[in-house]
Amino acid sequence: MRELYGQGTHFLCTECGRKIFVTEAEVTVRNGKRFVDLTCKSPGCVACDLPRLYDEDALEIHGTAGAG
């Protein structure tokens, strides 16, 4: 399902540590936990352009814009 987040919501990339800003993302629920499918776009990152699942609890969420 798609989830909308408020402006400024971000997660730190597990590889390079840069902020991945997100206003809309695909969310997957597994074993009662929500995971967000995010991709780092930093050219120097080894995970650049490789989608990864991040635990939604680790996101720094700045409000939600709605539910998908």
Keywords summarizing the entry:
0% helix; five-stranded antiparallel sheet; globular; two-stranded antiparallel ribbon; mainly beta; 68 residues
Largest sheet: 5 strands, antiparallel
If strands are numbered along the chain, what order do they take across the biggest sheet? 6-5-4-1-7
Using only C-alpha atoms, the radius of gyration works out to: 12 Å
Oligomer: single chain
H and E string:
EEEEEEE
Overall SS class = mainly beta
Beta strands, count: 7
Q: How far do the termini sit from each other?
A: 6 Å
- Tell me the overall shape: globular
Estimate the mean pLDDT confidence: 87
Number of helices: 0
Task: Determine the fraction of residues in helical runs and give it as a percent range.
Answer: under 10%
Q: What's this model, at a glance?
A:
By secondary structure, the protein is mainly β.
Tell me what you see in this structure:
The protein has 68 residues and is an all-beta fold. The model has no long low-confidence stretch (mean pLDDT 87). It is built from no helices and seven strands. The strands form two sheets. Strands 6-5-4-1-7 form a five-stranded antiparallel β-sheet, with no helix packed on it. Helix content is 0%, strand content 44%.
